[in-house]
Specification:
Helix content is 77%, strand content 0%. It is mostly helical and 235 residues long. The chain is elongated and about 170 Å long.
């Protein structure tokens, strides 16, 4: 068994005995490690630039010092690559832990919601729900029928024949006309014939044209006076 396996195995036992760290604690530790390694990266990058400057400074004048500077630069670069790999691993672990924590919270909340739904549905009877929905559907149909009936045009009186009504109206108009004709009284015709004049219309015919229909309310005496005036004018 490798040292790393022993370390994690021992750490796991200790964590199990202590109940294990919380996700928040583990995330905080990982972020601290990332920050430390990032600072180490900045330090190594600075050292690499410094060793390059030393190697350029000595060059061929002092090959030994220049080669030593390049060797140190190589070691720093190797450490820098290792830190890059470590940071990638830590970032992956941190993201996985964050997702696991999120999933745990989601599942926990979904469990609470499921329990709440179960409690709500305990007092519900599916048969009663079906009956209720059927009643609602029937009442909606009734409301629609009422709405359609109200919106239709009223047809009161359309069962009568229009031709019969027109015929009855004509009869009423004829009766009114006949009644009006009976109420009109024409003046009596004179017993003596009026003399006629050549080239003119006979006085009697002219008199008939000039006479207006009298109403039943006029007195007979007024008719006779009118006739006398006309006869005197025509003579």
């Amino acid at each position: 068994m490798s040292k790393i396996s022993k370390f994690f195995k021992g750490g796991g036992s200790a964590s199990k005995s202590r109940g294990g760290p919380s996700p928040q604690e583990a995330l905080a530790r990982l972020r601290e490690t990332e920050e430390m390694l990032s600072k180490k990266q900045e330090y190594l990058e600075t050292r690499i630039e410094r060793e390059l400057a030393v190697a350029r400074q000595h060059g061929t004048k002092n090959k030994r010092a220049a080669l030593q500077a390049l060797k140190r630069k190589k070691r720093y670069e190797k450490q820098l690559n290792q830190i890059d790999g470590t940071l990638s691993t830590i970032e992956f672990q941190r993201e996985a832990l964050e997702n696991s924590h999120t999933n745990t919270e989601v599942l926990k909340n979904m469990g609470y919601a499921a329990q709440a739904m179960k409690k709500v549905h305990e007092n519900m009877d599916l048969n009663k729900i079906d009956d209720l929905m059927q009643d609602i559907t029937e009442q909606q149909d009734v409301a629609q029928e009422i709405s359609d009936a109200i919106s239709n045009r009223a047809t009161f009186g359309d069962e009568f024949d229009e031709d019969e009504l027109l015929a009855e109206l004509e009869e009423l108009e004829q009766e009114e006309l006949s009644k009006g004709m009976r109420d009109v009284r024409l003046p009596s015709v004179p017993s003596t014939s009026l003399p006629s004049r050549p080239g003119k219309m006979p006085a009697f015919h002219f008199m008939l044209l000039m006479i207006k229909p009298c109403s039943s309310t006029r007195k007979r005496a007024e008719d006779e006076d009118e006739m006398k005036k006309l006869a005197a004018w025509a003579s």
